[in-house]
Specification:
By secondary structure, the chain is an alpha+beta fold. The chain contains 14 helices and 23 strands. It folds into two domains: 205 residues, Enolpyruvate transferase domain (UDP-n-acetylglucosamine1-carboxyvinyl-transferase, Chain), CATH 3.65.10; 206 residues, Alpha-beta prism (UDP-n-acetylglucosamine1-carboxyvinyl-transferase, Chain), CATH 3.65.10.10. A four-stranded mixed β-sheet has the order 21-22-1-23. Strands 2-14-16-15 form a four-stranded mixed β-sheet. Helix 10 links the parallel strand 17 and strand 18. The structure holds uridine-diphosphate-2(N-acetylglucosaminyl) butyric acid.
Length: 417
């Protein structure tokens, strides 16, 4: 188990360089299966989810070459194989091998995907979409078998704008016969990045980033090339950190447009924030105003930034309401924040955060990725020493977090215990 020790209350100043988006990279890596030949992905974040997906590519006999943030994937010796339970369960995004292998091989055998414990996380919308394309879905205990003689393009209406289902159905349909139209598709920036990768392989896709995506099937795809877009959630987490304890903290290599839901809230709260073309400069201020936040699908306030944002709300002067609408279980960090001195009352999917609270370091445990990131922010703001257990959750999605924070003046160490 890994533990993070933070000596808090040091002002953070300097530059934090944002890496490639986790939620894009975790789809781009499996998508490579669809190409014949060598594909290249650059700006790949150095996170443990990347390594878990590379392990699965190796099970499928792909040749991998990882050089810093550049990943080359050669599928010329691809052999379809069972993705065993240990590998399927390591992360949520293993489910992108369903769409990619179904599209390429018309056969997939894998187990239920894993991921953070933030809700029930069904994949019924993905499976219904695969069935609409002509696949047969067999479930045996925890295992899925998906197979088809051929996949035929069709109209698919998603009953929720699911990111995962939108991506999986793009992956499954690029090599299908005829045209697939995904209605009520998710509009996240990551979807555009993934569509661009498939287009670089020769796929025909229009409308990514809107509610209607049209995919005209092609017979074959060649090797592709893509740069992973900047991680808006990593960026958002560090921007909030700047509002908590920054002095001219510069968050670099970002696309400010992807962060508008967050930055407009920070402005409403009275933060000292300056938005430039590809960076944001932020400093803490004494009198933050409380606010109400409701998470929504893109371009609404992102659920993945909700937990870090709750830490900032503990420092506002007054009562804020926070409502989560995407996941049923995104309050796992609240008992730890309250142990550190916050005053947060949870009722179902809503929390009432009464600030300002003086946070004090103590021993806490990360229960999930973004909840863990919230504890890091709280530890850096608190007086005294904070010890965070189960840091593995955080390392799944925040690359080089110890180095990035140390560089701007944080006193932070990760150790194996
Ligand atoms: N849903 C269903 N059935 C489905 C699919 C989704 O009911 O078949 C429900 C989910 O239970 C949830 C909602 O729809 O209530 C949203 O799910 P979505 O499919 O959009 O989420 P996801 O694709 O599983 C991705 C990110 C999440 C992020 C959400 C929403 C990845 C690997 N994960 O999950 O990221 O919260 O989109 O933006 O891309 C994170 O990074 O911390 C994280 C959890």
């Amino acid at each position: 188990m890994k533990q993070m020790i933070i000596e808090g209350n040091h002002i953070l100043t300097g530059d934090i360089l944002i890496g490639g988006a986790k939620n894009s990279a975790v789809a781009l890596i499996p998508a490579s299966i669809l190409a014949n030949g060598i594909s290249t992905i650059t700006n790949v974040p150095n996170i443990s989810d990347r390594d878990a997906l590379i392990d699965i590519l190796e099970i499928l006999n792909c040749k991998i070459n990882l050089n810093n943030d550049e990943l080359k994937i050669d599928t010329s010796s691809l052999k379809n194989a069972l993705i065993d339970e240990e590998h399927s369960k390591k992360l949520r995004a293993s489910y992108y091998f369903m769409g990619a292998l179904l599209g390429k091989e018309k056969y997939v055998e894998m187990y239920i995907p894993g991921g953070c414990n933030i809700g029930a996380r069904p994949i019924d919308i993905h499976l219904d979409g695969f069935k609409a394309l002509g696949a047969q879905v067999i479930t045996e205990n925890n295992k899925y078998i998906l197979k088809a003689d051929k996949l035929i393009g069709t109209d698919i209406y998603l009953r929720f704008q699911s990111v995962g289902a939108t991506v999986n159905l793009m992956l499954a349909s690029v090599l299908a016969e005829g045209t697939t139209i995904i209605h009520n598709a998710a509009k996240e920036a990551e979807i555009i990045n993934i569509a661009d990768y498939l287009i670089s392989m020769g796929a025909q896709i229009t409308g990514a980033g809107t509610e209607t995506i049209t995919i005209s099937g092609v017979k074959k795809l060649h090797g592709g090339h893509i740069q992973v877009l900047p991680d808006r959630i990593e960026a958002g987490t560090y921007i909030i950190l700047g509002a908590l304890i920054g002095q001219n903290l510069k968050i670099k290599n970002i696309i400010p447009k992807h962060l508008e839901a967050l930055t407009s809230k920070l402005k409403d709260m009275g933060s000292n924030i300056k938005i430039n073309k590809d960076n944001i400069l932020i400093s803490r201020v004494a009198n933050l105003k409380p606010t109400n936040i409701k998470t929504l699908v893109y371009p609404g306030f992102p659920t993945d930034i909700g937990q870090p944002m709750s830490v900032l709300l503990t420092q506002a002067n007054g009562t804020s309401l926070f409502e989560e609408t995407i996941w049923e279980n995104r309050m796992g960090h609240v008992p730890s924040l309250n142990k550190m001195g916050a005053n947060i009352k949870v009722k179902g999917l809503t929390s009432m955060i009464i600030g300002p609270s003086q946070l004090k370091g103590c021993e806490v445990t990360a229960t999930d990725l973004r909840g863990g990131a919230a504890l890091v922010l709280a530890g850096l703001t608190a007086s005294g020493t904070t010890t965070i257990n189960d840091v593995e959750h955080i390392l799944r999605g925040y690359e080089n977090i110890e180095e990035k924070l140390t560089q701007v003046g944080a006193k932070i160490k990760i150790k194996e215990i």
